[in-house]
Amino acid sequence: NAGVTQTPKFQVLKTGQSMTLQCAQDMNHEYMSWYRQDPGMGLRLIHYSVGAGITDQGEVPNGYNVSRSTTEDFPLRLLSAAPSQTSVYFCASSYRGGRHTEAFFGQGTRLTVV
Amino acid sequence: AQSVAQPEDQVNVAEGNPLTVKCTYSVSGNPYLFWYVQYPNRGLQFLLKYITGDNLVKGSYGFEAEFNKSQTSFHLKKPSALVSDSALYFCAVRRHNYGQNFVFGPGTRLSVLP
After folding, report:
1. Is A31–B107 a contact, with Cβ atoms under 8 angstroms apart?
2. With an 8 Å Cβ cutoff, are B43 and A90 in contact?
3. Is the Cβ pair A105, B45 closer than 8 Å?
4. B59 in contact with A at a CB cutoff of 8 Å?
5. Torsion A8-A31-A94-A34 (CA) sign
6. Tell me: the pLDDT tens digits for B3-43?
7. For A83, left (φ over 0), alpha (ψ -120 to 50), or beta?
């Protein structure tokens, strides 16, 4: 059982380039989310989805797009990379069971924008 | 708005000694509280959660946490620390909004010294 899989693990981009971070889960979870982790700030919510075809913005959505065409996949797109987007990105998924359910996280993508 | 504080950036403890990692929260209504651990270059792993009921919650790897409603705290504890417990620990609370995603604390780095 693979759980939540993120690719790539590492990426270096030049300012202005675009890219897609991939996230896939094999647990048939309805809820999926993207967070970014920055030192001393914990994880902050970028975008989330409560089911296929449904996405919404989190706390820090600017510069990012998402789509959810299937239950399994939730890619995160950087439209025009900026140095401020240098971070570690985590994808998470959980059952649509309410606020008592835990989430499962991928291993992260470390992104550097130069 | 919900918030989580972890007042210590770093906690150092000798192997075999008890450890405590502190967390306080602010949330309206009943809190749904979680602890996650992040080992180097890995994603977040679920340790334990408080939903309702007993104030002492037991979780993975011998960890437990004590919920204190009057002090709005949810401190993580372990009776005897191991060197392998060295990692970054995050306290989190489920939101009322944003698809019930998490608000994370800034994290506490635990170092267990041999």
Report:
1. no
2. yes
3. yes
4. no
5. positive
6. 999 999 999 999 999 999 999 999 988 899 999 999 988 88
7. alpha
